[in-house]
User: Fold these one by one.
Assistant:
Number 1:
Amino acid sequence: MSVFDCLKRLCPPALPWVTGLLGMLATGPVLAAGYPEHPVRLIVPFAPGGSTDIVARIVAEPLARQLGQAVIVENRGGAGGAIGAAEAARAAPDGYTLSIATVSTMAVNPACHHELNYHPLHDFAPISNIARTANVLAVNPELGTEDLPEFIARLRADPDTVAFGTSGHCSVNHLAGAAFEQATDTRMIHVPFQGSGPAVVATLANQVQALFDNLPSSLGYVQSGQLRALAVAWPERLRQLPHVPTYAELGLPSLNHPVWYGLLAPAGTPPDRIRILNQAIAAVLRQPDVRQSLSLQGAMPAANRPEQFAEQIQQQYDWAREVVEAQGLAVN
Ligand code: GLU
């Protein structure tokens, strides 16, 4: 017999009170008295200047205004996001250490590294998705390839001579590069960085000639002509880059996979704090200035509920396992 049944038998008249109390004990206090009382850390699992960092810094200040406490962005790049994600997973589950979820940390890393020291599905409490964005393949204009067919021809003529930069080993951009090589039967040299920020800088300096990136970190350089975009992964052409074809248009639909960023707390964070954070980020993403800032960077605001975000993570996790393992992509 459960404690609940026992109490029901002993004192039926007090049943409503007892069930209410037990309900509170089961789900945590209904109100988060005084939360947050001090600044909140927001771990970005990539270097400064990358798309994750850009999105985090757009939402951090308005989120701080919603919460009435500072939100401090901390970059923890390395290992395709796995270092920062592991630190975020191990933080105290008190709502004072949050992190940005990416397709790399929640799906590709786990499919690629079998010995990760965090579990994307068990170690986090999803709060909300923040934004979705396209992937982009760009080159340094000095490579001299004007479009994707010319780029592919160049790679076929001289395999293993063009280097591509990414946000890290086992990142979603590494997967994009490997999938591109497989789909086009080409070979390049992979150069992983601690995030797209340094990968973009290396491409601008022509230390690597090509870049697989998520749009926010590359868009400004593509618009200014310092990088040349050859293809975007998005269902249709982007308003921000109307002259750049999608992979699907170019006959490579399997590469047309977009990405997203979301907000996480460590598993075990009280549900009332998750609720407060979900409402706060949803309010942030309704603000016209925030929506415009994200959109100028090529990121489309897209909030959802914690259970929807958890389902989204699960779907991407399953997708990445399938793509990395079943199709045998050369991510190693
Ligand atoms: N979402 C990208 C990744 O997961 C971002 C890299 C970055 O922000 O530097 O690889």
Number 2:
Amino acid sequence: MKSEISIGLLGLGTVGSGVAKILQQHQKDLRHKLGVPVLIKKVLIKDEGKDRQIALNPDIFTTDIGGILNDPSLDIIVEVMGGIDGAKQAIEKALRAGKQVVTANKDVMAEHGHELLKLADQEKCDLFYEASVAGGIPIIRTLEDGLASDRISSLMGIVNGTTNYILTKMKKENMSYETALEKATELGFAEADPSSDVDGLDAARKMVILSSLAFSTEVHLDDVLVRGMSEIQDGDLELADQFGYTVKMVGTSKKDEEGIEVTVEPIFLANSHPLAAVNNEFNAVYIYGDAVGETMLYGPGAGSLPTATSVVSDIIAACRNLLLGVNGKRLHAAQYERVMKEDRYCHAKYFHRLLVKDELGVLSKLTSIYSQHQASLQSVMQHPIKSEGKAEIILLTHHISRQQHVDIMSDLEGIASVISHYRIEGEESV
Ligand code: HSE
């Protein structure tokens, strides 16, 4: 029986310092939960000269990563240094050295998670990554354990705090996109390069991780259809509101007999859907399971202490396994072969906002294109605009396939220009 558990912490930035703080401040509780102390013994830092507001003995700081990964006295390596290649190599080396690994790195887990989990299985080590998706929300554990008995058919997530913050401020405070993004950056939600937030890559990475777990399949980043916030045009938020919807950047993942569909895009979400009430930088994941029905987890998706809470929970899980001698016993192999759904099988209602010449017969030309593609329309309306000689037409379809939607968009060329288009979600149970 071990008398203490030793940790090597790779990184002392926002998340790393939160981890150190929780491990120190909750040491008594951890000792009670585990029966032994959990101590940080070495910390990888980048800059030795930096002044740090953290009560750790600087003697344990090092800039030598090898000295941590090769230290046989360390039981658990906690990777919170960020980046992709260096972090991936560190995780691989730690696993090959027989260490348990905890990471908060969504980029590494989305792009290399499948191979790293296989390596962990092979080395009989734990690789935990709760903090990689939705910061403080225990969504990975919910999918792996809490809902293990169910068959999940769909999952929808607001998994990027920055875009949710921007959309909330634009809608509720009439703030401009630029000011809202600036504020999200100041508040520390946005990535170092915020284009990965606003273009949807950050959310896509998180949806890869969630979809792979929910459907026990190796979903890859290029399986995800991604549309960013630049698709949202002036006036769309108000129009959505008029029809009873809210524009949200949502990751959606669905599975049926035709395969899996994963998307990240701004959608028109019915105001009655629980995700429509998730505002500011908060994250939430809505899950539909065949047996459980609807569930939703809500909480902070970023920030030092919320993210560190998930990291420390993973440390506790790894410690429990260490004390029981059962690390690396969880099976990660995917159960199902990866079958991604073709566009002709992906069905939804759509909102189309078009600009046409304001002339006789234009409406019938438009609707005949929808008829040619067997797309039935729920409503058609003319939106009053000021532009001379032009008319703005709003069309809402009944359920059509994405293929029909794409074909219609392309056939509209010459008759109408597409101002914007959205998938509609959340009007009925999935
Ligand atoms: N930039 C991310 C977000 C941080 O806004 O959600 C958390 O992953």
